[in-house]
Amino acid sequence: MMRPTKNRQLSPNRRQAIQIGAGLFGLTLPQFLRAAAEIPGARKDISCIFIFLAGGPSHFETFDPKPNAPAEIRGLWKPTATSVPGTFICEKMPLMARRMHKVTIVRSWQGRSGSHSTGSQHVASGMESPTGGQYYPNFGCVVSALLGNKVSGVPAHFGLPVAARYTDPAGYLGAAHAAFDIKGDPIDDSAGLTKLTLAQKRFEDRQSILRQLDNLGRLADVHDSDLQSVDKFGGEAIELLTSGGMRNALNVNDEPAALRERYGDNLYGRRVLLARRLIEAGARFVTINQAVQGGLFGAGPTNGTWDNHHLLFESMMSFANEPPTIPGAYKWHRERGPGNLPQLDMSLSTLLDDLDDRGLLSTTLVVAMGEFGRTPKINKDAGRDHYPAAGSVLLAGAGIAEGAVIGATDKHGTEPKTRPWRPEDFAASIYRALGLDPHTTHFPRLVRPTPIAKGTVIDGLFA
Fold first, then answer.
1. Reduced to 3 states, what is the DSSP secondary structure of residue 207?
2. Residue 5 burial by CB count (10 A; 0-12/13-18/19+): exposed, middle or buried?
3. Which is nearest to 193 in space by CA: 257, 244, 123?
4. Beta-carbon contacts of residue 60 (< 8 Å; ≥ 6 apart)
5. Residue 463: partners with Cβ closer than 8 Å, 6 or more residues away
6. Which of 362, 320, 323, 367 is CA-nearest to residue 339?
7. How much of the chain exceeds pLDDT 90, in percent?
8. What DSSP string describes 21-83?
9. In terms of DSSP bridges, do strands 404-406 and 103-109 run parallel, antiparallel, or are they unpaired?
10. Is 117:386 a contact under the CB 8 Å cutoff?
11. pTM of the predicted model as reported, rounded to 2 decimal places
């Protein structure tokens, strides 16, 4: 297990020394700090597909079934054997069952908040938001700030369909490191370049940042080159809109029909396929949010999320099963077809195969997790409620151990019976996989020095 290094916060004198040293070596301050954040000898070509299972998936009906628990806890479905002897997952994930030798499941995840907003923020950044609504930047924003673009003209960070307010704020890092959102259906040309535009709010935010930095340009840690780099967001947008390579990456219709069918002939499956194409084109971090309509909660009992308070077993398998008698169960939602569980089974299993076949799995970290698990006891509406005390997380690729199960919950799935691994620890582990020292303190402009992670790398996670 990686051990904490000495805190890297610097006094003003040390900061001045670093600025001088950086200048002597021909580096701007951001370049110097980026070099300090990277783990010596670590690969610099690692990317991440972060599949956010918005709403909070049930660990009982995914990766931690409890067949010996009472009926009101174990639910309706049985466990199934997998490609890893002795490891069982939910029977409704047969495709993933045959690929468990490619992944690690952490069954001792534990959060702190049962709120969608604070829980999502905690999971997506590894930081608990302070009182007052100030968001910490999420993983993709930090990766963009510290590692920059992998390929010129390709943004470091994408959001599919959106950088939802609970999971993807740029926070104090500013609009230059916010995700590029692709909101439409990837199979529709109008959802490609025409949807990928610079929002007016971001443009105004960026202009405001530039004015602030210009006014503070006499400060030692703001260089002319730094001022120019903050304006890269607009330049990237223009380059993105005119780049033939990016235009091709956004066109999932270029993929064979058989492969598109394997990912799933639905909006979510196409977004997972698009994520693979973006990684292949040079993106560093792609967040997929399974909240189909873009926001988190609205139309329908679950709005395409995993927030299964009602009729969990029916609605997880097919949205058509969500009864119109539940307020908000709109017609569009009931006609959407396959539920989140078969969608995830198809798209995730195909993604792992596809990345592997293309030689990309070794350089692509895949993470699938939600903001919390679900209650052990099934409620009066045949659903499960919010439950941050226990949950499961899937990770694969980029040096992650294969076929491993880390941790365990008790016999009723109420809490970890082994060491709990918290969002802070997943943050440290994700940064470690991406080649960043998780104990780095970085220096967002106009903000006090801030650590990128407060946890420790999960024991046994890396091969």
1. helix
2. exposed
3. 244
4. 66, 73, 74, 75, 90, 374, 376, 384, 413
5. 399, 400, 401, 402
6. 320
7. 51
8. HHHHTT--HHHHHHHHHBPTT--S--EEEEEE-TT---STTTT---TTS-HHHH-SPPEEE-S
9. parallel
10. no
11. 0.82
Q: Give pLDDT tens digits for 58-100.
A: 999 999 999 999 999 999 999 999 999 999 999 999 999 999 9
Residues 360, 356: Cα–Cα separation, whole Å:
6
Task: Tell me what pLDDT residue 338 has.
Answer: 79
3-state class of 178 per DSSP? coil
Q: Are 304 and 293 in contact (CB under 8 A)?
A: yes
Strand partners, 374: 386
Give 392-435 as a 3 state SS string. Answer: EEEEECCCECCCEEECCECCCCCCECCCCECHHHHHHHHHHHCC
Structure-token pair, residue 244: 């033939």
Could you tell me the domains of the chain? 47-189+255-451 (3.40.720)
CA pair distance 56, 64, nearest whole angstrom? 14
Can you tell me whether residue 106 is helix, strand or coil? strand
- Residue 334 burial class via C-beta count within 10 angstroms: exposed 0-12, middle 13-18, buried 19 and up: middle
- Characterise 307 by phi-psi region: left (phi > 0), alpha (psi -120 to 50), beta (else): beta
Q: Which pLDDT tens digit goes with each residue over 310-339?
A: 889 988 998 665 544 444 443 434 445 678
Phi, psi of 150 (to 5 degrees): -80, -40
Flag residues of the chain having pLDDT under 50.
1-29, 32, 190-201, 203-204, 206, 209-210, 212-230, 292-302, 323-335
Residue with token string 């369909």: 161
Nearest by Cα to 139 from 106, 168, 159: 168
